[in-house]
Write a structure and sequence with these properties.
Elements (H helix, E strand, L loop, with lengths): L1 H19 L3 E3 L2 H25 L1 H6 L4 H17 L3 E3 L2 H23 L1
Antiparallel strand pairs: 1-2
Length: 113
């Protein structure tokens, strides 16, 4: 049940970012839910591989490179979604990944406790 709530919260975060920024577009609530599910799957399968492969640069940047890895997983999710989820450029993906991390850290995690 918590997993489904997490998916819905992530979909709401994606919709909020799409509402605020022009370069981040979702076609609707259904697309946001599917994007949230795909992002969860990509984060579970692809992200650990990328983290291991980029470990030296992650250590060198004191962990800030993890935002780049998150942006890449977000871009991969948008590529898998097609026209229903569009991100205009890597900079927008990086900004969105930072916002997603901040919102989840300061809003979602305190609500779960």
């Amino acid at each position: 049940m918590r997993w489904i709530v997490g998916l819905v919260i992530n979909a709401a975060i994606l919709l909020l970012i799409a509402y605020v920024f022009d370069g981040f577009e979702l076609s609707g609530i259904g697309a946001a839910l599917i994007a949230s599910l795909l992002l969860t799957i990509v984060n579970a399968i692809v992200k650990p591989i990328l983290v291991v492969l980029t470990l030296p640069i992650t250590i060198l940047t004191l962990g800030l490179f993890l935002f780049v890895v998150s942006a890449l997983t977000l871009l991969l999710t948008a590529a898998l979604m097609g026209d229903a989820f569009v991100i205009n450029g890597f900079g927008m993906a990086l900004l969105a990944s930072i916002l997603i991390a901040l919102i989840q850290t300061f809003v979602v995690k305190p609500l779960r406790k």
